[in-house]
Specification:
The chain is α/β, with parallel strands linked by helices. The protein is built from 13 helices and 15 strands. The protein is globular and about 60 Å long.
């Protein structure tokens, strides 16, 4: 249990516990271990198991064949800390309070690591980016929080802000070999490679782009108009996407090494394994290309979701219904036999046997940019930044600071290129009229826990080095 929480409060938050009868080697077949793998900045449509025929992801595809695949998983926020905090609390950012990167997670939040620690799990995290460093307090509840970054980013020559997938996997497997396999293990592995700048190591740098990244900007400027032109063959934009694909394939290799290592050590087949991404990446579909955080389009909110049960039970099943990443925490707890704590805003999926979630369930998401000023409290995000509601095939997008509202039919327009409200047709005005009160009611329900920006000059420099803190005129004007 976190030293910052009293036993009484955490016990109250945990509610009743359904006893585990010996985990996977018992009659009820419950998992003994929990493995959560996060693929930062990974678009679902970049994996073979989600239909991509060009990008090579053999290890994740093999895992998908052993898992229940969530075809329509929507992230609630397109930035690293906000989305991961939602993953580990089952709450929206406008409830847990960490509206974007750099804001400290309030200790009143009860995280998955704390809940599992309360029930005898030894927990270890291996994070790939400064965005999740322990100073931001997502580390609460972990027994081991490994943040030994080894790659330089930004103008400061001493700031080590991330590490490659190979280092994350090496650290996780070395930990298990040195510490031994505990009776119950919660392992969190965070892979940051797909995040800009796109610079995969050899041979992945030339796997899709023969030029190997030559001539591409190191870190694409955060401007509204794409600086690399369109995605036409041979354009800088297309080549940037190919380097991104190289990062995905490189990351796949080392996720595969982790899975193989867990299998060899007798962990995998006794584990509940969840693989997801915190958000995707806009290519050239919308403004602010090769970026994320500014909007709530599918390019950044449609994410990877796989749940592998012990023994690959129900492997290869695909659920097509609507899922949100706040659903993953209550789903994991349910599979373990634990009740979700009060205040969780997600809904547990039924996975044994798998059942489709309700098709008409609304889901919500909120952008994390523009910056808005570190002096403002997270409620500012709720009032002004882009937000969306998705129900069925329709998605309503509002951007209050720009005074815009858009409606898309994702069954016909999956990349959101044709705003139906521009047609001024009664049919679509009626759809928007049904969705608008859902979205505005959700926005009005915000009750964020207090948070604050971890305002050190070092923090600002290191976030800037990762491309998170913009300094352009548009962003300055939005503060």
């Amino acid at each position: 249990m976190s030293s910052k929480k009293t036993k009484g409060r955490l016990a109250a938050a945990s509610l009743a516990v359904v006893a585990l009868a010996g985990c996977p080697d018992s009659a009820d077949g419950r998992p003994r271990h929990v493995i959560v793998i996060s693929l930062d900045t990974t678009r679902a449509d970049q994996l073979g198991c989600y239909g991509n025929t060009k990008v090579k992801t053999p290890n994740l595809d093999r895992l998908a064949a052993e898992s229940i695949v969530l075809d329509d998983l929507l992230s609630v926020a397109p930035s690293t800390l906000a989305s991961h905090t939602s993953l580990f609390t089952g709450k929206f950012p406008h409830t847990h309070g960490s509206a974007r990167n750099g804001f400290v997670v309030n200790d009143e939040n009860v995280t998955l690591a704390e809940l599992l620690h309360e029930h005898g799990f030894t927990s270890a995290a291996f994070v790939g980016s400064f965005a999740l460093e322990s100073r931001f307090n997502l580390s609460q509840g972990f027994d081991r929080y490994d943040e030994e970054f080894d790659r330089l980013r930004g103008r400061d020559p001493v700031m080590q802000n991330e590490r490659r997938a190979a280092s994350v996997t090496d650290a996780a497997l070395s930990y298990l070999d040195q510490a031994g396999i505990p009776r119950r293990l919660f392992l969190f592995a965070h892979y940051f490679d797909a995040h800009a700048p796109y610079a995969p190591p050899p041979p992945y740098d030339t796997l899709y782009d023969p030029q190997g990244g030559a001539g591409l900007p190191v870190l694409i400027a955060e401007t509204k108009d794409c600086p690399l032109a369109s995605g036409d063959a041979g354009s800088l934009a297309e080549r940037a996407a190919l380097q991104y694909a190289g990062e995905i394939s490189y990351m796949d290799e080392h996720v595969g090494r982790l899975l193989d290592g867990l299998r060899e050590r007798g962990v995998l087949d006794r584990a509940l394994v969840v693989v997801t991404s915190d958000h995707g990446e806009t290519f050239w579909e919308h403004p602010y290309c090769f970026n994320h955080g500014w909007d709530t389009y599918q390019a950044t909110l449609h994410v990877v979701g796989m749940v592998r049960l012990p023994g690959a039970l129900h492997g290869g099943t695909r659920l097509h219904g609507p899922v949100s990443n706040v659903d993953l925490l209550p789903t994991m707890l349910g599979l373990l036999g634990f009740a979700a704590p009060p205040g969780v805003e997600g809904h547990a999926l039924v996975l044994d046997p798998p059942a489709e979630p309700p098709a008409d369930r609304p889901r919500f998401g909120q952008a994390t940019k523009p910056w808005g000023g570190i002096e403002l409290d997270p409620r500012w995000t709720n009032l002004l930044k882009s937000r969306c509601v998705r129900r069925g095939s329709y998605k309503l997008v509002q951007t209050p600071y720009a005074g815009t509202e858009e409606l898309y039919d994702l069954s016909r327009d999956p990349t959101e290129q044709h705003d139906l409200l521009a047609e001024r047709a009664a049919e679509f005005e009626g759809v928007a009229a049904e969705l608008r009160p859902l979205l505005e009611g959700w926005a009005a329900s915000a009750h964020p826990l207090p948070s604050h920006f971890e305002e050190r000059e070092e923090t600002l420099r290191r976030l800037e080095g990762l491309g998170y803190v913009g300094g352009g005129k548009e962003e300055q004007d939005s503060r």
